[in-house]
Design a protein that fits this description.
Length: 82
């Protein structure tokens, strides 16, 4: 996953705010979204991120894969990532 260069992430108590400085669009997510974002930024591949999240949340890979795909699609639709 690659956020656009002008997109910034700000940690909050409730999760994160992902903000595009050029368009002033933003995306707010909770603690789970914060974990998903961290996993996909730190992993080598999306599959690796899914595996990490699957262990953390003790949930099947299929459910995590669906949720991560949905999260990434929301970020794309918001114009925050390539």
């Amino acid at each position: 996953m690659e956020l656009l260069p002008h997109v910034k992430i700000r940690q909050e108590q409730f999760g994160v705010i992902i903000f595009d400085k050029e368009t002033e669009k933003f995306f707010v997510t909770d603690e789970v979204g914060k974990d998903v974002l961290a996993a996909i930024q730190n992993a080598q591949t999306i599959d690796e991120a899914v595996e990490q999240l699957s262990h953390k949340y003790e949930t099947s890979r299929e459910i995590i894969q669906r949720d991560v795909s949905s999260f990434l699609e929301q970020l794309r639709q918001a114009g925050l990532m390539q």
